[in-house]
Amino acid sequence: MSQILRTILLLIFLSPGIKAQQPQTQIREPLNYGFVSPNTREDQKLNDAIAAMSSNGEAVILKRARDLGCVVRTKVTVFKSLGSWSDGAEQALVLRMRSDEASVRYLLSRLGRDANQKSVLYFHPKSSGIARIYLLKPQRQSTNLVQITNTLERAGIVFRTLVPVGGNTWIYIVDPKRELRAKVRNAAKRLRATVNWENGTAEFVGAEQVSEAREIFEREIADYETKNPKLPPTCDVQNRNAQ
Known about the structure:
By secondary structure, this protein is α+β, with helices and mostly antiparallel strands. It has one domain. The chain has helices at residues 3-14, 46-52, 56-67, 101-114, 145-154, 181-191, 210-227, 235-242, and strands at 31-36, 76-85, 88-98, 119-125, 131-138, 160-165, 168-175, 193-206. Strands 1-3-2-6-7-5-8-4 form an eight-stranded antiparallel barrel, surrounded by six helices. α4 crosses α7 (210-227). Mean pLDDT is 90; it is low at 4-23.
């Protein structure tokens, strides 16, 4: 090897500006859950809510939720669902999206405002969070939402969200203070269901009155858009512009 080549190799080896390329591992955002309804009726009964799961209002908000994914730059997966409690029920949506907490709050605030809702609910995974979300999957296939609702009620689960998936029904239970563990186990036993859970932050965004809730949604939206200027348009607008 010539002296000149040795010198060049030595300079390359000693140069502080040249480093070996290290593979970078992309960190994925956590999977968030959002719960929102287009229902504006008071005291809606269970059977009416089940029928409304196929309504035009449900279809409109479902499309709106998917289209907003382009604004927060993530895919939003949306499921039709039934939200129910001891004395009422409503057609609803369950959203799943990988994002930070601020983005899921923003997206749900836009949906809540546009659907004239009093509140929306989200769950953001965090190992140190005081809340918990449970997912129950009955091993025996069933799409009888009335029967499942009654079983959950007898088990002491007052608030629940039922999601028809194929020939089965998944059940989401948000436990803001981790107080429902025994009742969830009881429900899972009655339904012969597997149970998955995750800790995190759960919060209702909104107010008791629609007008007050709208003001809160508007503040959430304005705050996010101030911190994130020049957001992309919704997916439907992007598709129209591309045509």
